[in-house]
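Troubleshooting log. The previous structure file for this entry was overwritten by mistake, so regenerating from the original sequence record. Sequence copied from the archived sheet and checked twice against the printout by T.R.
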Amino acid sequence: MRIPSLWRGAASRRQVPNCWLQSWAGAKSTFRARSAHGAAWAALIVLFVLIAPGKARAEFTVCNQTLDVVNLAVAQEVDRAFQTDGWWTIGANQCVNVIRDELANRYIYVYATDVFGNAILTGSTDMCVERRRFTIRGIGDCWQRGHIAASFYEVDTLAQARWTFFLTGRSP
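Regenerated output below.
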C-alpha cells in the first residue's frame, strides 16, 4: 500500500502531516501575538481607569430644547436664605450644568429670558437678578437694594439628588 504524499514521513498514526504542523505552528505564534496584544490593551484600560479623573457630575442641568439662545438664572436655598445666581447662556438644543453639587433642596427656581430680555417662563416667585453676572443673597426688597425683581419658575425635583429641566418654549 502506498502512503499518500500528504503523509510522507509519517511512521505512525500519531504523527500529523507536515502542512498541518506548519499551520499549527503559525496559528500558535499568531495566537501568542494576539494574546500579547490583548494583554497590552487590557493593561492600558486598567491604567486609564485608575488614573482617570472622577466622573463629572451634573446635579441640576438645564437643557434648551428651543430654537433660540436662552439666558438663565437659578435660585435655591443656601444656608437658610435664598440665593440667586446668573447668567448662563444656553444655545439652541444644548444643555448646561447649572448646579454641580448634589441637590439639597426639593425646589429649584429658574428664570429664563430670550436674547432680548423677555421672560420665556411664567413664574410666580419673585426674586432678584442683575443685568450682568451675579450672586445675590436674599429675595426681598430687590428694587431697594439696587437689583431687578424677576418672577422665577418653581421646579419640583421630587427631592432627587440629580435633576434635568427641559426648556421647551412653552411654560411647563
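The radius of gyration is 33 Å. Archived copy saved in two places this time.
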